[in-house]
Amino acid sequence: MHGSETQERQCWRCGTGVGAGLVCPHCEAPQPLPPGSDLFAVLGLPRRLVLDGAELERSYHARSRALHPDRHQTAEARARELSERASAMLNRAYRTLRDPVARGRYWLELHGKPLHLDNKEVPAPLAADVFDTQEKLEELRSSPTPELRDEVRQTRDALAARLHALQEDLSSLYAGRNGDGLLGELKRRLSEIAYLQTLLGDIEATLGNQRGAHSRH
Amino acid sequence: MERIVGIDLGTTNSLVAVLEEDGPRVLTEPESGARLLPSAVAFLPGGEVVVGNRARELAPDHPFEAILSVKRFMGVGLEHVSDEDRRRYRFVDGREGAVRFAVAGREVTPPEVSAHILRELKRWAEHALGGPVAKAVITVPAYFNDSQRQATKDAGRLAGLEVLRLVNEPTAAALAYGLDKGEEGTIAVYDLGGGTFDISVLKLRGGIFEVLATNGDTRLGGDDLDARLAEVVLAELPSELAGRPSVRARARAAAERAKQELSAQLRTEVVLDLPEVGRQARAPIGREDFERLVRDIVARTVGPCRSALKDAGGDVREIKEVVAVGGSTRAPLVRRQIEEIFGRPALVDIDPDEVVALGAGIQAGILAGGRRDMLLLDVVPLSLGIETMGGVFTRLIERNTTIPATVKETFTTAVDSQTSVDVHVLQGERELAADNRSLARFKIPIGPMPAGVPRLEVTFLVDANGILSVTASDLRTGLERSVEVKPSYGLTEEEMERMLEESIDHAEDDVRQRQVREARVEADVILAATRQALAAHGPLLVPGEGDAIGAAVAGLETARTGVDYVGIRDAIETLSRTTEPFARRVMDESLREALANRRLEDI
C-alpha cells in the first residue's frame, strides 16, 4: 500500500518514476520531499533511536553530493530552488540526529511529548544540588572571595562530569529499552540534561563576569 | 563547459583565476602580465575612474579620492567606522544605512567602488580566455555577516557579473590545498589578510570539505600592523605635518614596505619622503622592535582560534595541518603565533597571496560541473535571530550551522486590526538585540483581524552563500505573503536598479528596450513549450539529456532577466539546439500514435 503510493511519484522534469528518492534516477533533478517525511526519512534511515554514527555520516555525505546547490547551479530555477530546500532539510536532519540529546528531543516531539525547556520544575534528583549551587552563585555575586571562586569551580567540574555521564548513559538507554516506558524515562533524563546545561551556563556567566570585573580594577 | 571565473576580492589585492584541465590558474593583466590587482580605486575630477596600481600611486596626493581598502566598508554603517578611518576618507554625513564616500564632487557606495575592481578583473579574464565572462564565484571573509555578503554580491551585479556563489576565503584555501595534496582528516586554516582575520576548522573526507566551525574578526589585519608602524615615523614629524591626510597616506605606504622587508631581514628603515615640504623622515627599526610594537595585535587572533576549536568539538591535537593564508602570515611573528596555538608549524606550500584565488577558481569549476568529486559544506559564521519582547535576541539559526539552513516560525498579532507583522532580523552572539548587528526589517502585510487570530508562518532560509531570505505564508488561507525588505546597511532593490541603469548608455535606450522586450517574449514562448514537452514526454529523454536541457533552460531564464538582447537570442538558440533531438523523438512518437489510431479505425 505504502509502496504503490511512493511509486506514483514522478520526476517533475522528465516524468520518470522516482519512488521515495530525493533525486530523479534518470535526469538527476532534485525532487520535492515526500509529504510527511520525518528527519530519519530525509537521511534514508530507519526510524530508530539507535544510530550508527558512521552510517549516519555516510548517508549524509552521499545525499549531500546529490542534493547540494553546488550540484544544480547550472540547472533551471525550479531545480535550484528544490535543491536548496532539500539540502537545508538534510542539514537539519544531520545536525539533529547526530547529537544524542537533540535526537532524543526530536524523538519526544515525533511522539507528541515535546520537552518544554521553560519548564520551571527542577528535576527531583537535581533539586538539592541546584539549590546549593544557586546559593553559592548568589554569594559569589555579592561578596566574591578567591576561596568561593575555587569552590564554585569545583562544583562546576562536578556538575560537568555528571552531565557527561548522563549524556553517555543515553546511548545505553537507546539501545536497551523500547516500548511504553521509554518515553517517560527519556523525558526525565533529557530534562535533567537540559537543566544541568542551563545551570552550567549560569556558573560560566557568573565566573566570567567576576573575571571581567576583576580585570577592570 | 561555461567559463565561470573565481575572484579573490581582497582588502589589499585582488586576483582572478579559473579551473583548467590540469588545475587552477591565476589569470594575468594583458598589458603587464601582473597577477595581483591592487584593490585601489581613484575618482578623478571630470568623472574618470582609475583602478589598481595607478590609483594606489595617486593616494598620497589625493588621499580622499583614492580608496585603498574599500572592503573594510562593505555592508557597514557610518557608526561602525573607526575614528582613524573617518580621518582617512570623507564620508557623507547624516545618512542612515550604508556608508557613502564623498569623492571628487560625487557620492559613491562601497559596492560601486568594488564594482570598479571587479570590472577590471573581468577585463583581464576576458582577454586571457578570449571570450565574454559573465559569471563568477567571489570569495569573502568567513566571518562576514549577511550585510557584508549582500554588499559583495551587489558589487558583482554592478560589474555585470552574475555571482553564482560567495565562498569563504579559508574554505577556498582549503580547497586549493586539498586538491594539491589529496588530504584527509581535520585541518585548520589561519587567514590573516589585509583587513580581516578568519580561522576555520574543516574535516576533509572523500572529496567532501565539511567546515566544522569558523570564527574571526573583520576588523583585524595587516593594515593594523602598517598603521602601528606608520606612527613610529610620523612621530619624527611636527604634529601639524603628521596630521595631514596626504602625509599619513605616505607614511602607511612606507610602513607597509618596511614591514615586508622585516619578514626577510632583521633591520630596516621606514623612509618617508615629503618632497612638497622638502623633508624626509627616517625611522630605523629592527625586527624585534617591530614585533614588540605589534605583538598585541597579532595576539588578538588567539581568542577566535580557541573559540573555533571549541565549537568544532575537537582537541587541538586532532588538527593534522594548519594552513597559513594571507600576506601577513609571511611575518615571522605571525608564524610563531600560529605554532604556539596549534603546536605545529604552518603549511605554506602555496603562495599565501594566491591560494584563495586558486580555491575560488576550483569552486567555479565545481559549479560548472567540472569537478564532481569535490563538494564544499560550509557554515553560517554568526547566529541569526529576531528581536522578541523586551528587546531580547532570540536565536533561530545557531552559528556554525551548515548551509543551506532553514527554520520556520509562526507569528501572530498583538492588537486588533493590525495590518502587518514586522520582523527585525539580527546577527550576532549577544543576549540583547541592541548588542547585535541589525540586518534588515521585514514587513509582512495581513488582513485586519482580532488580535491573535492571524497565523503567519515565516520561513528563514540561509542559502549556500550565507545570505538570508525570508518568505511568509498565511496558515489560515495557505496563501503566500509578500515580504517587504528594508536592509539596515545595504542597498534597496530600487537603488540597485537605478545604479544599474546609470551604468547603461541612455542614448540607445529606446531601440534596445524594444529589442529586449521582443527577445523576452520569444524566450517565454520557447520556455513554456519546452516545459510542456518535458512534462508530457519525459520518458523519451536519453540519459544526460535532461540535465543538458535543464542547463539550457537555466541559461535562458537568467538571460531573460538581463538587458542584453543579444545574450537572450543566444540563449534561445542554445536551448532550441539542445532540445532538437528530443523534439524530433516527440514528433516521431506523435506520428506513430496518429498512424496507430488510423489503423485501428481502418479495421
Short key terms for the protein model shown above:
heterodimer; A: mainly alpha; Helix Hairpins; 8 helices; elongated; disordered N terminus; B: alpha+beta; Nucleotidyltransferase, domain 5; Substrate Binding Domain Of DNAk, Chain A, domain 1; 16 helices; 27 strands; 39% helix
Question: Strand fraction band of chain B?
Answer: 25-35%
**Spans of chain A with pLDDT under 50 lasting ≥5 residues?**
1-6, 212-217
Q: What is the name of the CATH topology of the largest domain in chain B?
A: Nucleotidyltransferase, domain 5
Q: Please mark out the parts of chain B with pLDDT under 50 across 5 or more consecutive residues, or reply none.
A: none
Could you explain the architecture of this structure?
The complex is a heterodimer of chains A (217) and B (603). With 217 residues, chain A is mainly α. Chain A has helices spanning 2-7, 39-42, 53-67, 77-98, 100-110, 127-142, 146-176, 180-216. Chain A has 2 domains: 2-98, DnaJ domain (Helix Hairpins); 124-216. The longest helix of chain A is centred in the C-terminal third of the chain and has 37 residues, at 180-216. Residues 1-6 and 212-217 of chain A have low confidence and may be disordered. In chain B, strands 1, 2, 3, 4, 10 and 11 form a 6-stranded mixed beta sheet that branches. A 5-stranded mixed beta sheet of chain B has the order 17-12-13-14-18, with helices on both faces. With 603 residues, chain B is an alpha+beta fold. In chain B, helix 3 crosses helix 4 (146-158) and helix 6 (222-234) packs across helix 9. Chain B has 4 domains: 4-220 and 300-377, 2-Layer Sandwich (Nucleotidyltransferase, domain 5); 222-298, Actin, Chain A, domain 4, CATH 3.90.640.10; 384-493, Substrate Binding Domain Of DNAk, Chain A, domain 1 (Sandwich), CATH 2.60.34.10; 506-602, Up-down Bundle (Substrate Binding Domain Of Dnak, Chain:A, Domain 2). The chains are: A mainly alpha (217), B alpha+beta (603). At the A-B interface, helix 3 and helix 4 of A face helix 12, strand 18, helix 14 and helix 15 of B.
